């Protein structure tokens, strides 16, 4: 079926009363950004729906993009035909036929915006229903919960037929929930946490700590490429890379081994908070889940959280690893996350970090290093890259094996 338009229905928006206008404007903007690469599209956001006119662009490619945009409840490809009853009948039958399997039931649901059209909705339902019954052998009419509901809309500028409802990503349009900083590693969890933060409408900036030469160019490229994947759900993302080697070396030299990890994490969070505040963002997201590793006990979170009063939000906090992996696979980050390039944390993790670090000890051991000077230097050394949806950063596959050998 050659579709002419995709009809996009809004999700939770409809319950948001006076914010509705802003939500629709933001969703329209996000949809335009995610469809940048299709130059012929026309996108019109209306109060109850958004219409994407294809003008010859591929409906399946556009649908794939749209189904990742937060704030969309569902979408339906539709065919626009002339206001000519014979054409409407033939198109209706062709659409039903395309989805027909033995035992399929259907009904016609007509809406009429153009009240001057020669037939009313009842007449149209009867005529089209009759035509489909005659031309699709074996099909039956069913009024309650049919397999196919063929919607026919008689608008002023033409007739639109649609029969499929494709689920959207749900959630809220990115940008309507404020702005926050995400601590992004190259692992499995933080990309999933990013996705979930964005699903609630939050616009993210990524902060990534790296430690050359202990960590490779490819480890950095992996985090950037993950950012590109995540950008497909809400548009360009600023990727902020923070040099962390000097801090890690200082800590390793001066802090007792049991507290290496806790102090490193406190420094990371402190720097992230400084970056968040300088950009006037209102919170920090991480990929932590309770009980996964030593840094992720309640005691440890308390000892680390001590360095900032910004809210630290952890969308994965009570998820099982399997649940997280399932989402990572769904959003297309899993295969990247499992590439074997170590990030800066793995490399400086001591064999036996304290799982229940004490807050007073953490504070005391930190006095052994120049906290303020190191934070300042790291913040001054950041580099910001604007990452586009699906932008690539990694070298070819062969390098993966080179590192593995
Ligand atoms: P992930 O799979 O996200 O790496 P993890 O289960 O490996 O998480 P940790 O390595 O302890 O757990 O990291 C916990 C969280 O700390 C990460 O989810 C991320 O938010 C943050 N983090 C870890 N390493 C970095 C890094 N190099 N840069 C920025 N944030 C990081
Ligand atoms: Mg990790």
**Sheet/helix structural class:** alpha/beta
Provide the helix percentage: 25-40%
CATH class of the largest domain: Alpha Beta
Report the portion of residues in β strands.
15-25%
| Through-space gap between termini | 50 Å
CATH topology of the largest domain: Rossmann fold
Topology readout:
Elements: E1 5-10, H1 20-34, E2 42-45, E3 49-53, H2 59-66, E4 72-81, H3 85-99, E5 105-112, H4 121-135, E6 140-141, E7 148-155, E8 158-162, E9 166-170, E10 179-183, H5 189-199, E11 203-210, H6 217-231, E12 237-243, H7 245-254, H8 260-278, E13 284-285, H9 298-305, E14 312-313, H10 321-331, H11 334-337, H12 344-347, H13 359-366, H14 371-380, E15 383-387, H15 398-404
Parallel strand pairs: 5-6, 5-7, 10-11, 10-13, 11-12, 13-14
Antiparallel strand pairs: 1-3, 1-4, 2-3, 4-8, 4-9, 7-8, 12-15
Helix pairs in contact: 3-4, 5-10, 7-8, 8-9, 8-14, 9-13
The structure holds adenosine-5'-triphosphate and magnesium ion.
Binding site for ATP: 183-184, 208-209, 265, 287, 296
Main location: cytoplasm
Pathway: Cofactor biosynthesis; thiamine diphosphate biosynthesis
